[in-house]
Amino acid sequence: MDLSGKVALVTGGSRGIGREIAIELARHGASVAISYVNNEEKAVEVVKEIQKFSVKGMCIKADVSKEEEVKKLVDAIKDELGTIDILVNNAGINRDTLLIRMNTQEWDQVIDTNLKGTYLCTRLVAKDMIKKRYGKIINIASVAGVAGNYGQANYSASKAGVIGFTKAVAKALASRGINVNAVAPGLIETDMTQALKEEVKETLIKSVPMGRLGSPKDVANLVVFLASDKSDYITGQTINIDGGMIM
Ligand code: NAP
Questions:
Q1: Using a 6 Å cutoff on CB, does residue 92 contact ligand 1?
Q2: Separation between Cα atoms, residue 46 and residue 28, nearest integer Å
Q3: Of 94, 97, 173, 195, which sits with the fewest C-beta atoms within 10 Å of its C-beta?
Q4: Where are the alpha helices (DSSP H) in 28-66?
Q5: Residue 214 has what DSSP assignment?
């Protein structure tokens, strides 16, 4: 899969799945911009990894839930790298708790980052993709958005929203040469799953037919495929990557 000459934006590329996606896109020849919200040091490290593949890399601090910050993010990338051909809406958070204990701030934070953030980035980037009649948009959803998950009403709603958004935008942009797909990871080894209690993790792993957590690289491999011309006839799909958790 050859992505030479392409420019990608990976939101939340400083850690976990986004970090691995950014590095794999660079390995396949794309120049890559990543965004982060807190961890500048980690983001700078990822840029160094990207540049090892002799492509351009840059990182920008931008909260995807804030419209003015997303605008500055997209403008900065266009100034430095010229355009955006591949958008990976990866930035995401969870604030897990039982519904009756959930407060509205926990609801809003998750919906604003995971769903509104995906909308804000996609709307801005799609404008240029429509003019070019080319683009690949990949949204990182979750199996929680497909099947729901205990203690994750806010997170599951945000990810189900991302899946519906993916389908609607895919229909709208298909005739403009733009593919829009979602990826729904199961349990992947990152800071997000590190935070789970050991017994919760063990119970969850029992629900995975492959009997193990996935790696960020597993997800990155699928994203590279969806960013490449090998997936040109695929749009509006949500592909589970979960060791068989959801069938
Ligand atoms: P992670 O390790 O916690 O990393 C989250 C990334 O998102 C970090 O780069 C973080 O930046 C960034 N971020 C958080 N809030 C942001 C905001 N408001 N604006 C911009 N960036 C923000 O998470 P992960 O496990 O890699 O998850 C990545 C994506 O995969 C998320 O959408 C998540 O929901 C989804 N997912 C994960 C799993 C899993 O098992 N891990 C399963 C299904 C889906 P800082 O470093 O600056 O904080």
A1: yes
A2: 15
A3: 195
A4: 40-51
A5: B
pLDDT, tens digit, for every residue of 41-97? 999 999 999 999 999 999 999 999 999 999 999 999 999 999 999 999 999 999 999
176-230 pLDDT, tens digit per residue, is 999 999 999 999 999 988 888 888 888 889 999 999 999 999 999 999 999 999 9
> Quick one: which of 62, 67, 55, 54 has its CA closest to 18?
62
Alpha-carbon gap, residue 67 to 247, rounded angstroms: 36
Instruction: Kindly state if the Cβ of 192 falls inside 6 Å of ligand 1.
Output: yes
Mutate which of 36, 44, 67, 115 for ligand 1? The one with the most ligand atoms within 8 Å of its CB, which is: 36
Distance 189 CA to ligand 1 centre (A): 12
Cα of 17 to ligand 1 centre, how many Å?
7
CA dist 103 and 98 (Å) reads 10
Amino acid, single-letter form, for residue 44: V
Has 233 been annotated as catalytic? no
Ligand 1 lined by 129 (C-beta under 6 Å): no
Ligand 1 within 6 A of 158 CB? Answer: no
What is the rounded CA–CA span in Å between residue 104 and residue 4? 44
